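The authors assume throughout that readers already know how a fold can be written as discrete tokens. For illustration, here is how one protein appears when written out as sequence plus structure tokens:
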Amino acid sequence: MSDRKLLILNVATFSGTIIGVGLFSLPYIALKVGFWVMLFYFIVLGALIYLVHKYFGEVAIKTPDFKRYPGFAKYYLGDWGEKIAFISSIIGTFGALLAYLIVGGEFLTQLLSPIFGGDNLIYTFIYFFIGALFIFLGIKAIQKIEFLGLILFSVILVLIFWAGKDFINIGNLFLHNSLNLKNFFLPYGAIIFSLSGISLIPEIEENLKDKKNLLTKIIFISILIPIIIYLFFIFLILGICGENTTETALTGLVDFLGYRIAVLGYLFGLITTFTSFITMGLTLKKIFHYDLKLNKKLSWFITCFIPLFLFLIGVNQFIPVISFVGGVMCGIDGILILLMYKKINPQKKIIYPLSLIFILGIIYEIVYFVK
């Protein structure tokens, strides 16, 4: 396979994996902090995330045997590193599944309740049980859905832009541009969550075989593409909805574009969240089954029903959930990767200021989430 084709295939896989539910939080956060603050965070955190992924790629290249993130942590940091990596991966995936459940249930409600009636809880249950069924059946049951979702993701986003282009008001991007310290740190966790794709680095490194020199370029492009798409999505939703932008982004479109056009947005959001819910659920189920040696049914039950339990007891605010996962769990992952990188490059001093950013982010997000 040529270098160019290998580059394109891996960039498509990696950037497609990164783009997920975090996308839907960004317009509302941009409304609260202003577009320029949001752009500042994308530049700074984009560089931070790129460096962490690049360093992890270097660690993967220099490490023998086939390993995944917890395996790397054990190899370089010992048993304690592996345990922390497992815990952060599991809690982080639970948080992501919960976020998909919150947003997916909301999109299904907006899509079907005008036709059939019923409240958000009913449609969240429907979303959950269909998703849990697919996770129970396994990967083969969703291959066609994933392929269809990838096509519709692009098509529907273009259609929403085309339908809403006359409603876009550039001034809506700058409604709250005065510096507000209360909201200034709000983008941190959500953007970290939205750009993180650490788990896929070892797989891409293995796929490159004797062309590992492409890894750094793949990582750079694969992080740049989501940033461009996220900024376009902020421009699209905030430009149309302005002050009426909602926490899940798409639910505010109906007031401007009407239900029939907004259906495209809900369908887009539903497909995006549903396929990711299944994919991440299958990954977590495998961790419980293969790594922690639980039987398949128990692994499935724990994977699916803990997010549902959290939702039912009231942990159902979308932005706090993804901010916690991004700021705390992805922050822990970032620190562990920097510590691993120090093992192969002990002379690198940059890991200390980068680690400090993650530590401060963890503290902030814990305080923000508890509050």
Observations:
- The CA atoms of residues 17 and 197 lie 7 Å apart.
- The chain has one domain: 3-124+171-250+312-370.
- Residues 3-124+171-250+312-370 form one domain.
- The chain has 15 helices and no strands.
